[in-house]
Amino acid sequence: MNGSAAIQTSSLLIASSLVLVTLFFSYWQKLKLEKETLISVIRAVIQLIAVGYVLNYVFGVKNPLFTTFLLLFMTFNAAYNAAKRGRTIRHGLAISFFSILIGALVTLTVLLLSKTIRYEPYQMIPIGGMIISNAMVALGLCYKQLTADFKTKREEVETKLALGADIHASSIDIIRDSIKTGMLPTIDSAKTLGIVSLPGMMTGLILAGASPLEAIKYQLMVTFMLLSTTAIASFIACSLAYRGFFNARKQVK
Amino acid sequence: MSLLEFSHVSFTRENRALVNDLSLSIEAGDFLSIVGPSGSGKSTLLRLCCHLISPTEGTIRFHGQDLMRFNPMELRKQISYCFQMPYLFGDTVRNNLEYPFSLRNKPVDPDRLEELFAAFQMSTSNLEKEIQHLSGGEKQRIALMRSIVFQPEILLLDEVTSALDVANTQIVEKVIEALNQAGITILWITHNPEQSRKYANKILTIDTGEIRSLEAIR
Questions:
Q1: Nearest residue on chain B to A251, judged by CA atoms?
Q2: Confidence of residue A197 (pLDDT cuts 50, 70, 90)
Q3: Hey, are the CB atoms on A158 and B50 less than 8 Å from each other?
């Protein structure tokens, strides 16, 4: 990148002294977070160095099948984590995998067809990672809301069932509520972009020497793709997961 | 053939029998009053009737056919349940009273709504009223109206007058009596013995999920 402001290792070492500030506060205020802070910093260093080497290797493998495999692997992991958040959700893993897969697939297809990105590992993997992890967080929130609502709004659901409504009609408000809960953090962060925060990606690009206007273009792309993936994944997941709260006789479990 | 028949029905939840080996026949046109102490299984009995729950043992038959063989949605349109705590949804009374029409994909019949408001001695101007501005009595009457927009074969009432004042209770009793006279079978949980004796032709007393007595009074 032109005008790239590469960080010297020695500079990074000096910057690492900032961790001491955290340790000092923890010690001073008796927060007892010293051990945890040290562990987290060491983990971050090891994990990031490892992932740096892995990415270096991954970006070098130009086989599209390998890229696809990695994206599917990431999707599976995200689905597994999302399903763990919603233990009460029947077929949580399958639903999460399918929802995230479709959400990511639609978004990536649009980005590829519009030639915003190319099917190259150095583009697909980071972008895929971003949208997949965002969808994972959204699904976790959706499941939490769905489970809570089916507990607190059982009366509403049963009233509608008693009138002869199908399970979807009886749960529609809960489904909508849960989709909203999954989407709101992404919408809120989109609303405050540039006002409350300069997002990490944009900051990174600017720090690396890109012009702010170029960085903004990338950030807008990221914002759009996060919005669409979250919307699609939340919608599919909630529309499938609500069924698990009923039995075959259309009764609330 | 009885309209609704329970044979050796039990319903157990978390190792507790809420209804225990209950056998009962309800004939078309019956007005059955169900009495018994709190927690005796009265509401569970009504929930079993409209298939909001299924027996863990035994069989319930409607028109001689096992409830499990009916489409639950169609069944619940025939056996309507009005809850003790009325739950109104949406924003307005209209949302609630038009709901049964939309469930049946039928156009709203304003004449039917007018008829219902007249029966419950309420003005049709209440249609646009927001549900949060309704009193407890009004909510219960709207919930009852919603249950009978389309006349069911069996109407299940769970202490629907317990939160009403005397005047409102009388209005509701009159409507229910008229429904029964029009051929609708009524199963009514009530704590009011006077109410039981006045309207019912049979009084069922249950305790700990079992029948204590079934008394035919008319």
A1: B52
A2: low
A3: no
- Contact with chain A for residue B69, Cβ under 8 A: no
- Asked if A166 lies within 8 A of B73 by C-beta distance, the reply is yes
Nearest residue to A88 via CA among A133, A45, A40, A150: A150
Dig out the tokens for B110 from the structure: 């304003």
What residues does each domain of chain A span?
A: 1-60, 64-245
* pLDDT at residue A4 greater than cutoff 60: no
Residue of B80, B87, B148 to mutate, interface with A, max A Cβ within 10 Å: B87
* B10 phi, psi to nearest 5 deg: -125, 150
The rounded percent of chain A whose pLDDT value lies above 70 is: 97
pLDDT given for residue A1 in this prediction: 43
Any B CB within 8 A of A172 CB? no
Residue B44 in contact with partner chain A when CB distance is under 8 A? no
Asked if B89 and A159 come within 8 Å (Cβ–Cβ), the reply is yes
**Of all residues in chain A, what percent are helix, strand and coil, respectively (each to 5)?**
80, 0, 20
For residue range A5-47, list pLDDT tens digits in order: 677 888 888 888 899 999 998 899 888 899 989 999 999 899 8
Chains A, B: CB pairs < 8 Å: 55
A166 CB within 8 Å of a chain B CB: yes
Whether the predicted pLDDT of A155 surpasses 50: yes
Query: pTM, whole model, 2 decimals?
Result: 0.83
Domain encompassing residue B157: 4-216
Chain A contact for B154 (CB, 8 A cutoff) = no
Spatial separation of the C-alpha atoms in residues B80 and A165, rounded to whole Å: 12
Candidate from B89, B100, B104 with C-beta closest to A156: B89
CATH number at residue B50: 3.40.50.300
What would the DSSP string read from start to end of A116-173? SS-S-HHHHHHHHHHHHHHHHHHHHHHHHHHHHHHHHTHHHHHHHHHTT--HHHHHHH
B144 CB burial (10 A radius; 0-12, 13-18, 19+): buried
Number of folded domains that form chain B: 1
**pLDDT the model gives residue B193:** 82
Is residue A3 less than 8 Å (CB to CB) from chain B? no
CB count in 10 Å sphere of residue A170: 25
Query: What pLDDT shows up at residue A51?
Result: 87
Amino acid (1-letter code) at residue B19: V
pLDDT band of A2, cuts 50, 70, 90 = very low
